[in-house]
Amino acid sequence: MAIRKFRESFKWLIWLVAIAFVAWLGLELGANILNFNWTRVKPWQEGIVAEIGDYQLTIQEYDAAVQRAVAETLAVRGVESLSPEEEEAIRDAVFYQLVDLIRWRKLAEKHGIKLSDKAVLTLVALSPPPALLRDTTLNKNGQFDYQRYLQILNDKRYAPIFAAYEQELRRAVPAEITRGLFLKIPSISRYEMWKEYERNNTKYGFSFINLVYSQIQDTPTGVSEAQLKEFYRKNKKEFRKPPRANLYIVRVDKVPLKIDSLQAKELAETAYEEAKTNWEGAVKVYSEDPASKDRGGVIGWFAIDDQRLPPEIAAAVKNADTGAVLGPFLLPFGWDIIKVVARDTASDSLQLAHILITVKLSQQSKQEIRDSLISFLERAKKEKDFLKLAKEYGFRVDSTGLFSLSDGFIPFVGPDRALLSWIKRAKVGEVSDIIYRPQFYMVAKLIDKREAGVPPYEEVKEEVKRKYVLNYKRQKGLSILEEIKRKLESGVPLDSIPNLYPNLRLGVGSEDSASANAFVRGLVAKDLFFSLLKRVKSGGWRGPYDYKNGAYLVFKRYEVPVSEEEFKEKYQVLLSQEFQKVAMKFMGAFSQELEDLYPLKDYRGYIY
Length: 608
Hints:
There is one protein chain. By secondary structure, the chain is α+β, with helices and mostly antiparallel strands. It has 21 helices and 20 strands. Strands 6, 11, 12, 15 and 16 form a five-stranded antiparallel sheet that branches. The chain has a four-stranded antiparallel sheet with strand order 17-5-19-18. Strands 7-10-9-8 form a four-stranded antiparallel sheet, with helices on both faces. The termini are far apart.
């Protein structure tokens, strides 16, 4: 019986193993046939620099745009090369220009905005490709020969240039058309423009007293916990917080490593040997100082005890003969080789030239830094103790503390919408990809995230205390201003008021013919103040008028209104200014929507 049951169980076991084996075999064969890799290939491993929505920006497209930008910069400046810092800045600027263009292009595609063949031909005819505009063979008397250009439109020799230009037009123009259409959307009210012009240009004669509540020295005593909680309960709206987050930030600067210093030293030693026999040639080949390279490395005249000279160089040149080549000297900015060009014994000064060789971050070192960070990142996404792991790698960790996600600014990072977008999507405990910056790499870990709302009392207890005290001072301040108002109405001169309240540092002033556009000493919350002037009647002290941090007493002597005729004369200029202001505001708000519609995933930190 037992044997039979075992045989039946064994048969089922055999079937299960057989099915599992066939399934495994099928998967393996399928994987081999399809060349499927069980290890998911990362986008940057496939040459993807970034993803903007579903668009993949390739290394080829990005590098080509960077090369064009660098070439244009070199042509404009008339120089042969740029510093590594300048190239990094250009790379960064080009990246975000491309991201912006791609987003608008995707929006154009979404709304069916594209160029017809006829439109492309018209644009090509009216606006020649930049490559041909720079072609000297198409110049006539120093000017671009447009008639000859029209003749070569069908010349097959120029076909590659026109094909590339057509592709660029189809890529870029619909995006610009879409952007232009969106800029036409904001409507501008003539009435609102008039009211703003009137508000900003109406002139007033007035006197005022301004009391800032923080100047009041009295503070409440014997405040109980119960009183603070009651104040918190009644004023909860004042403690409302926007969405907030807290990050750990690991930042790794792109600085030269030891191997870079050794390579620079070897180069400096080679340059020194050549400089002893051929100074001019060595300067042209080795010096990295653009200010002196074209004039034989000459940097000027120096007194023997000139404080501008580093101590080691000053000591070396002091007794050196004219024509002596000295160095190389290791300075904070690199290696320096010095030549004594001439000496003036009368003034005890000498003329110096130099060959500067900087210590630069090599691609090998940059890759080493990046590999270290990638290794750290792979472990950080699996291991819980982020701080311990960072210490193991020798990375410094900063904590941002809770910061507002609505401000667009991240401590230790600055403005970064891509990182903000990641924070909004990520869960607490998640670690970001490598974040690329021209001067450093960075990794972030989300350690806290809170939705908008009123925090519990214990979290904002110190803020409750501060506002409770400020509210106490506010009540006292309003009472003091009522007292001052009675004194002024009884005939006490305005200029004597500060002496009657020496501990308050009151803001007291009078103006004639001042508008909201003018600077008035002692005024804060200026927009509020001039809106008060517009509303109050002339004659007599009015107030106190409470604003966020203080209160005003106001005496309006007269008002000089603006002329509508004057507004009509300036209307076209004002309309252009207002349109630019409204358009910028609109585009700023819409940019956020574009970023949400086509979110950015930036992989540059894994590649460059």
